[in-house]
């Protein structure tokens, strides 16, 4: 499976500017890819002013993603602010080339930034079946909580989209490798660049890690589109040979 990750700055609380930016980047991808991954809250930056940028699941950004996914014959995923009535979600949407949509609402809201005061947490882990791969989508702060991401579903790929600041970038690099190793799964992390409306700086470090913790795509520091090729059969052969997942603990989430 070929994956394109887009590492970029984001215009603060300006969905139209961000859509224009990503549309140019997506249309500029010359090779065929299976999935295109955008950062967390890619239309706005990580905002706790959801009423300023919130859209519905029938809104302009969703329609835009469906149109681009069909035109590129590629799935597109990333998170944005979604409103359902008076309730706001940090929602990761996975748009298939057919236009079909599956979604995941961020479970672990970032209390340090008061995300929990304005957004509603998701309750369900999501596994997406796409082109023979089982994909688990997660968002930013979820990365710190290994119990929720534990590979009890036999998934093949973890995708984290994030707004992870410079001050804690060492944790981002370390935890992505940890999640890949403990779950014996390819793991993609896509983070943003630039400075946001709260004057927080982001260094990127978008990357792809394999099921043994090796870098498929080294942490990136520049703006751009980066392509990684994932080999499912090699991963499954390694799982079969080492069989670490059979010894995992059982647990019940509450």
Written overview of the protein:
- The protein is of the alpha/beta class.
- 25% of the residues lie in helices and 30% in strands.
- The chain has seven helices and 14 strands.
- The chain has helices spanning 15-27, 50-53, 60-72, 115-118, 146-149, 169-183, 232-242; strands at 2-7, 35-37, 75-84, 87-95, 101-105, 128-130, 133-139, 157-162, 186-191, 193-195, 201-203, 206-209, 215-220, 224-229.
- The strands form three sheets. It has a six-stranded mixed beta sheet with strand order 5-4-3-2-1-14.
- The longest helix is centred in the last third of the chain and has 15 residues, at 169-183.
- The radius of gyration is 17 Å and the shape is globular.
What attributes does this structure have?
254 residues, alpha/beta, 6-stranded mixed sheet, 7 helices
Query: What low-confidence regions span 5 or more consecutive residues with pLDDT below 50?
Result: none
| Portion in helices | 25-40%
Question: End-to-end distance, in Å?
Answer: 34 Å
Order the strands across the largest sheet as they lie in space.
5-4-3-2-1-14
**Class derived from helix and strand content:** alpha/beta
Task: Give the number of helices.
Answer: 7
What is the H-and-E element order?
EHEHHEEEHEEHEHEEEEEEH
Question: Overall 3D geometry?
Answer: globular
Mean pLDDT: 97
Quick one: biggest sheet? 6 strands, mixed
Number of strands: 14
What's the alpha carbon Rg, rounded to whole Å?
17 Å
Q: Which percent band covers the strand fraction?
A: 25-35%
